[in-house]
Amino acid sequence: MWAGATHILEHEHPLNLIDLQPNYPLYEEKYDDDDDNGGGELITRQNFRRRPCDRCSKEITWFHRYYYECAYSCDYSLHKFCGELPITLKHTSHPAHTLNLIHLSHPLLDPRCFCVLCGRNDTVGLCYCCIVCRFQIHGNCTIASVEDRLIYHPSHRHPLAATLKPQLSECNACGKEHEGTFYICTTCFGLFIHSDCAFLPENLMIQNATNDIFSHPHPLILSYSFPIQDQKDQYFPKCRVCKSGFYDSANTWIYKCEKCRYYAHIPCAKSRGAINRLLIKNYKDSDYPDLLHLPFPDESYSIPKHMFAKLVEHGKFGADEGNYVKHNFHPHPLILVRTECNDITSIPTSSKTTVISCHNPMKKVQLLCNACVRPVTSVPFYKCVNDDCNFVLHEWCTQLPTQVEKYPGHPEHTFILHPNAPNKFLSSVFRCDVCQLECNGFVYSCVECYHYHIDVTCCFMPQNITHEAHSGHLLSRSFKREHLTSCLICKDSIYPFQRSFACDTCKDVVVHVGCALLLPREIRHKYDKKHPMRLSYLPIENHKSEYFCEICEKALNPEKCFYHCYECAWSIHTFCAPHILQSESSVSDRDVDGLKGPYMFVNIKFGGIYKFERRHPHPLSFVQGIESDGPCSNCGYAVKYHPILKCQKCKYVIHFVCCRWKWRNDEIVEEI
User: Fold this and answer.
1) Considering the domain boundaries, does residue 519 fall inside one?
2) Into how many domains does the chain fold?
3) For residue range 31-73, what is the model confidence (pLDDT) as tens digits?
4) Which of 55, 110, 452, 618 is a Cys-bridge partner for 446, taking CB atoms 3.0 to 4.6 Å apart?
5) Which three-class secondary structure state does DSSP give residue 495?
6) Which domain holds residue 254?
7) Is residue 215 within 8 Å of 208, Cβ to Cβ?
8) Do 377 and 409 fall into the same domain?
9) What secondary structure letter does DSSP report for 306?
10) Residue 623 — φ and ψ, nearest 5°?
11) How many CB atoms lie within 10 A of CB 384?
12) 464 lies in a domain?
């Protein structure tokens, strides 16, 4: 936009005064691919090419707002304040002679002379000089107003003026202390923006420190605030570079990509001096030949499989010629199933049949190993020959050692393998002393400590792992911490007494045992039968809508881990995607803690049927409660999501914990 014309003595053509910010102080952030171009000011800004002033040789920027340019085709431009400087000047500091406007690079000037007003010896720009007296004054210093030092910055509603002398102060833009020239508001006072921050690029491609690889595919947009309410709406995201929050910097500037919910502090986004610590591995592969790399590819993998699958070919436990074996922990013979039946309606009716369907959540088929309580997703595996018995074992779970010596965290005693926890009532449900999850699979129990039990997964938990959420660094088992912290994956609390995996290099990186071991990289879910859903730890790039869970239809925090289908752009909570079929319902609306939420019953195999003659006339099934089951017959509280005993003939239900406490001295008349 131009406003009138003027004539400059040393240029033959008239000059037009251009206003680069006609809508100032209004400002709107714009992305390159926005459909609405936002009006003429944005076009002017995008088309404006920075150029040197033909009088002072300093750059003309968009922030100066006004400048003169030639009305004709020649490329002649001036700062507004430079264009309005007089050619000659009578100044009170040198009344004897008239001062002439010349360039500081003029050969008649003595390079050793200083401006008598500011004391600087500049080599670029204009000055008024007296050649006879070797007297000079910078052109900018002769102007009584501050117009020559003004910029019109979109971050503030008033023009900002540059300080005449360098100073040491905290910059309100980046929050860091700087020394040098600052731009201040003469109306508000208290606003200081360092010159380096004042002229930051509006768009920035953020790069790694060592190899110039762009660490985000889109340009980051400079934003002049990050209000607390906006942070709350985005679940208080953290800087993607330094991993710290923005809680104390609501009014400082940031770089952001709203499409990907990518936010970075100003110093973090533009700093390339420090090496990203994740670019350097903190271990050698040769030192850890059997290192476990997590997460597991899918739900069929487990620590017992990782530890013992290679031993199956050489194991002592094997089938005879008829494919039948006898296991010490089960009263019936086991048969080796080598062929899977894909038709789930064709359930074997004969003990001689060796065809059965594997675990398949997509088809609502559940088949869980009695030892590790993980899905049996492929053949071969062992199954009880009795059709009414659901005892199943992975091949590698037949290789579990009968005792474990010097277990980390409890090395003073020996652990013995049992089919169920000694002295435990009903279904042998016990709480693992490592992961704190309920379990009714095989158990390693301390021979000395009456109540110390560990499930078979935790018993062989490795000392060191890696995880793609913190790739390149070794995570080591940690038995206690000095203070409360949060899990890198789920962002929920990790208490000082909880077992966890921690990075020795990055002291702030800690991961729940459950988050590391029990959330597979990919899952299949009935809500998306065409594609697998992948575990994500950060907001998805180019996600065009708000995040919500497709199952519970509630808001989803993308800063916490969740499962996402990249083809359908669907997302679900980890706790709404149980990867073991135990219940038709999720646990999303239950107030669960971070340790148990996504996998509360991952170590429990439901389905046992029991008869208590003194307590109830009908058999009771061991199941997970759902909403329609109503309240507990003992305590009156809802049984939804809890393990319960349920009568299939009447509406009688009771919490498992109520049953265990109330009937602890009873004997089970019959286990069906």
Assistant:
1) no
2) 7
3) 555 444 444 444 344 457 778 888 777 888 878 788 888 988 7
4) 452
5) coil
6) 203-279
7) yes
8) no
9) H
10) -140, 175
11) 20
12) no
